[in-house]
Design brief:
This protein is an alpha+beta fold. It has a single domain, classed as Cytochrome p450 (Orthogonal Bundle), CATH 1.10.630.10. Helices cover 45% and strands 8% of the residues. It contains 16 helices and 10 strands. The termini are far apart. The N terminus is likely disordered. This is Mycocyclosin synthase. One of its GO terms (molecular function) is heme binding. Keywords: Heme, Iron, Metal-binding, Monooxygenase, Oxidoreductase.
Length: 408
């Protein structure tokens, strides 16, 4: 039976501490408990606001696909929040701005692995260049600093049209842009302001000096046959800065989680080393089974919407717990088992609906090329310290290991 407005407003809070555990190697126990007993649960966020936490696959997909649930509105003033808005609203609004300005296809084209500037062959070459230095140095090596971060920076720079050295500079402060806090603090946007100003100089550079998506967006801005009045330098710089941050952070963090998962499943690692053609299916399972996303995907209800047994009221915050959905046994038989050949595998790690990640295709190739190269070049890849001694970052949107030291 649907909840009445009175029942909804009086719903008791779930017995769960939010945010969930920052450990990236163990699925939080609350996911299974809530999914079974209370798949749309009332919780208190980091800011003290009320929210609905969605943990089942069916309800998660409903929220992500229903356009009555808005990502853009999470940046609006006076709405309940997951945590304080410590980044400018335009960062949250980037894809909305891209869509409204008619740039969505350009972003999709730029991040397409076939038509875009970064082909699978290019990514493989970059991975092997980094591994040449790593192999020459010898173990142990911190795979985060020496491989995952620079490899991801190289990809995003290639697509956007930023020099690689500039990407490493942007990457050095990236963690500051993804801090979670219950309150806005002094300097919380300082890193964004610096990076935005840096990218704005590239947007305003001479056309001959521009490359990649930056050049294409500036060509559209200046096209006399197109009404480019809605494309300002500031909008383009905010778009590129946002795409760099989200793209580089998501790809390098997922890559670390993927490596860690394979290390914990040596038979799967051996299988993929012998049969690299099976890597694309393995990447899908790694996307499902890893916990890199961290916090729930936020949406604000624009209307009253029935979700499961709960009537979500307009203006309320809903958090989609992706790890809950991706481990739902109703959708994924034996979900705790890592199965590189799992099929079908309709995970929600790239979201769903209108806000499905535009970089999903290139991200898959990025991971497949990197993992294939790692398994080829680093035989007997393994952790250089006990698993339970890995340090997982707190106060961050993503579940990130501070270091991933490995031997081979």
């Amino acid at each position: 039976m649907a909840s009445t407005p009175t029942e909804t407003s009086l719903s008791s809070y779930a017995d769960v501490e939010w945010p969930l555990s920052r450990r990236g190697d163990v699925v939080p126990a609350e996911c299974a408990r809530l999914r079974e007993k209370n798949p749309v649960a009332r919780i208190r966020t980091l800011t003290g606001d009320d929210a609905w936490l969605v943990t089942s696959y069916a309800t998660a997909r409903q929220v992500l696909e229903d356009e009555r649930f808005s990502l853009r509105d999470t940046a609006a003033p006076d709405v309940p929040r997951q945590y304080a808005l410590t980044i400018p609203p335009e960062v949250v609004n980037t894809m909305g701005n891209v869509n409204s300005a008619g740039l969505h296809q350009e972003v999709l084209r730029a991040f397409g692995p076939r038509s875009g500037p970064a082909s699978a062959q290019w990514m493989s070459a970059r991975a092997h260049e980094l591994l040449d230095t790593i192999v020459e140095e010898g173990p142990p090596v911190d795979l985060r600093q020496r491989f995952a971060e620079p490899y991801s920076a190289a990809l995003v720079c290639k697509v956007l049209g930023l020099p690689y050295e500039d990407g490493l500079r942007l990457m050095s402060g990236l963690d500051l842009g993804f801090v979670t806090s219950p309150v806005v603090y002094d300097g919380c946007t300082a890193n964004w302001d610096k990076d935005y100003a840096f990218v704005l100089r590239h947007v305003r550079a001479d056309r001959d000096a521009q490359q990649g998506l930056i050049r294409r967006l500036c060509e559209l801005r200046d096209d006399p046959e197109r009404d480019g009045g809605d494309l300002t330098d500031e909008m383009l710089a905010a778009t590129v800065t946002s795409l760099f941050g989200a793209g580089a952070m998501s790809t390098y963090v997922f890559l670390l989680h993927a490596v860690l998962t394979l290390i914990r499943h040596p038979s799967a690692m051996d299988h993929l080393r012998q049969r690299p053609e099976a890597m694309p299916d393995a990447v899908e399972e790694l996307l499902r089974a890893t916990l890199s996303i961290g916090d729930g995907l936020p949406r604000i209800a624009r209307a009253d919407v029935q979700v499961g047994d709960v009537l979500v009221r307009a203006g309320e915050l809903v958090l989609v717990c992706v790890e809950g959905a991706n481990f739902d046994p109703e959708q994924f038989p034996d979900p705790e088992r890592f199965d590189p050949g799992r099929s079908p595998n309709a995970h929600l790690s790239f979201g769903a609906g209108r806000h499905f990640c535009p970089a999903s295709a290139i991200s898959r190739v990025h991971a497949a090329e990197a993992l294939t190269a790692l398994l080829q070049r680093l035989p007997r890849l393994r952790l250089a310290q006990p698993l339970d001694q890995l340090v997982w970052r707190t106060g961050n949107i993503k579940r990130v290991p501070e270091r991933l030291p490995v031997l081979w």
